[in-house]
Structure formats: structure tokens, C-alpha cells
Amino acid sequence: xxxxxxxxxxxxxxxxxxxxxxxxxxxxxxxxxxxxxxxxxxxxxxxxxxxxxxxxxxxxxxxxxxxxxxxxxxxxxxxxxxxxxxxxxxxxxxxxxxxxxxxxxxxxxxxxxxxxxxxxxxxxxxxxxxxxxxxxxxxxxxxxxxxxxxxxxxxxxxxxxxx
Length: 163
Hints:
The chain is of the alpha+beta class. It has helices spanning about 15-25, 40-45, 95-110, 125-135; strands spanning about 5, 50-55, 60-70, 80-85, 115-120, 135-140, 140-145, 155-160.
């Protein structure tokens, strides 16, 4: 598998929507509750500052993606936010790390100064280990800040990284 990170193309949309919806349906990481369909996915991904995919250059199969966008406006507009999704069967192969590293570069290239994650679910230990290893700083814990799919509330941990 030869993974390349590149900007998404319209021809990627069906695979992107499928990967995104896997994470939404899991209900343990993304705040979204509604799955994307082709029309809504097309709008959603196009309205981001930058959307990238992790593609196997041998098979043209997408294994993951990320979205990058402002975290706020005005005086806080220099802070960006991102979300990452990796296909279930592709997890554990370093694709998330490739996506995060590319996102850090793209955030800087797009003029942002800080990448902030508002709501990393505390039980998402693989993501939290990755963020720490890549130099993100945890800002604390927000008790019961995320409603899991089964209805119970889990802690969230905000993180930031200076670009």
C-alpha cells in the first residue's frame, strides 16, 4: 500500500462520504449525528478551507480524509480546527498520523497560527497518544462534554498545536 495525501477531487466524494459516515455512525468521536448523502457531502466538503484524502496510489482506494476550517472568526480567526476519518479496516496502519502531519502543514500554508481540537473524546486513546507524540498540548478535560451514541456522557479533552 502506497499512501499519498492530496487534496480531494469530486471523483472521491462517494468514498469520502462512506468513510465519514462510518465515524458518524460509530457515534464515539464526531459530534455530527446525521450521515452525509452525496448532495450534502458535496456541499460540506467544498465549504471547508481544505479537504484532503489519504489514497492508495496503486489502487486509487481512499483510506481516510480530513477537513480543515477556521475554529472561530475575527480576532480568533487565526485558529483552525480539523476532523479526521480513517476507514475502519484501514485503522492502525499509520494513516491517521499521515493525515494529521499533512493537516499541520496545510494549516500553516492557509495562514492559520494554531490548530485546536475542541472535543477529543477521552476514550479515544489512539488519537490522544498520536496528538501528544506530535506535540499537541492538552488544555484540560471537560467532564461529560460528549454524548455518546448509547446516550451516556464522556469526558472530552481539548488540544492545541502551534503552527
